[in-house]
Amino acid sequence: MLTTRIVRPPAWLVHLISTACGCVVVWDLFGLRTGYMACLTGVGILALVVSHYASQSRRGPWTCVACVAFLIFGELWWADPVDWHSIRGSQMIILMKLVSVGYDLDSATLLSPPNPLEIAGYIMNPGTVIFGPWFSFSSYLKVVGPLSWSLWLIPGIVLRLALSIMFLLVSTCYTSWLVPDSANRWGLAYREALSFRFSHYFVSYLSETSALLAGLDMSKVARPYFIELPRSLVEVVIYWNVPMHHWLKTYVFKTARNHLGIFWALLLTYSMSALFHGLNFQLAAVLLSLGFYTFVEYSLRAKLASVFDACILARPCSDTCSHKQKACSWFSLSTNLVFGMLTVFHLAYLGIMFDSSSQQQETGYSMIHTLNKWSSLNYASHWVTFVCYVMYSVI
User: Known catalytic residues?
Assistant: First the structure.
């Protein structure tokens, strides 16, 4: 932060410091497992270079294919499962950075390929290499500025750190007080999902803190209010990880929608997200279920909004919308409340298998673990979504 917000060092020195500090942080945390991340970085850079000279319009897709192929190889044949699972998050951030550089070059957002020191500083930035979040290469280059200094920066960092600690304490200690062991199965499911969500908020706010300390201008990563008091699953997906949503929307969904249509574009987007997280049935099942859930909810609410001429879409209407029944009408308020409660129900169901007490946590949860958790709730969420889909089809 000192080298980007107070003084104006040479650009090459900023990139060198970023690379060196990132390497120290990664080695201190992961040790020899850093070798996997170095190999992924090497594969991605090699794919960028080769695709740049072979086809200057497909650098993003080729880089994505090469990185995903490496992840599949490491997951199935090369790495120790415990070691590999411990670096999933960091490897996903590296992959997203490399692929975004390729797509930005294809779209001319970047006019020229970054030099080796720039790309190393971007990938190994110490504020984001462990917890994320993803940020674009253009945003990274702003650190050469230097960025403006504000007296509110330090209080903002302290506040984010305090919030991250609060979410960690709630996740590990206080959820069992909120929902006791004597609760029914749905209460326990909500407790497990709540603990998982609060652990995600802990990581999100900690990543904001580390990014700000590294001198980056970083907006909110997650917005707990829109998740704990949701309007729709669509908003939960957006505000769960805002930078990643922006990445998927910019580099995957828009491209796929132009060729495949909305449903298949959504399916491809969630499939790609599952691949980036690794070959893990639990995560793939949750993400693909979310893809179908959000499509059904979005489509059903769009039809209902048209039939009743009401502000009940998955996303809030603008103040100038043409609906007769505005958001403050009793019908719109009650309908949005019902869909919000339905979203809480889905979150409890989808989050139940993220059981922190399970021994499988170190290697990733298996298919049997996931199906057993959902079968204990009679696959209720999937059945409810199927009913909503039937309603959408017949309206």
Answer: 277
